[in-house]
Each structure stands twice: as structure tokens, then as C-alpha cells.
Amino acid sequence: MNSTLKITLLLAFMALFGQAQNALTVHVTGLKSSDGKVMIELVNASGKAVAQQVADISNKKSEIVFDNLKSGKYAIRYYHDENSNGKMDTGTFGIPTEGYGFSNNARGFMGPPDFEDMVFAVNSNAEVTLKTKN
Question: pTM above 0.85?
Fold first, then answer.
């Protein structure tokens, strides 16, 4: 086998299997109670949801693991479905009555934060801790 073919095969193998798969562990803190579930969504840099999970709560905290992530930029949005009705409850003027949060603990004004304020990079196994807005 000539050296050009060997190099081509090596590069093809690296491209096919060289994509590192990462795990992202998310710690959600500051929940109002241990009732209900945390509904969490992981979004890629294009704003497309790549994973969603429903997580249990213990001692007013939750831990969620997203496995097999490609290296890249992501954002997280979540809410505490305290009454387990499958939706974020709101009160007057659409203000949430259940806890919620975003990656980088970003906060918006009169709505969700700008996407750029929520984005973070995952290039290896990573952990983030998010504080719930109640």
C-alpha cells in the first residue's frame, strides 16, 4: 500500500471516528421545592433543540446529564414544573409563577435573555451549575 493511500485512509478514519463525544452535567439549584420535575432543553448554536429531559428533584436540586454531545456551542433553558402539569404556569401579564432559568444564569428584560447571553462551549466533559429564578 503506498503512503498516499495510507494517509488518505488515516484521515478518513480520524474524520469518521475522531469526533469526541462529550458529557455535560447540569446542576440546577435554588428550586422552590422538591415537588414536580425539572423540564430542561439543550439547544445548539443554531437555536435548534438537540435534547430534552425531564429530571427528578431531590432536596430542591436536580442533576441532569446530557451524553454523547459533539464539541460545539450550546445553550440551556429550563423550568420547574412544580405542579407536574407539563407546562410553565404564568400569572398576570404572562409572568412565570414557576421557577425557570437559562445557561450562564442569563436574565432577560421583559422576556427571555438574548441567545448570545446563554451560549457556552462544550469541548470536553463539562459541568455547569444554574440558579433558578423563582
Answer: no
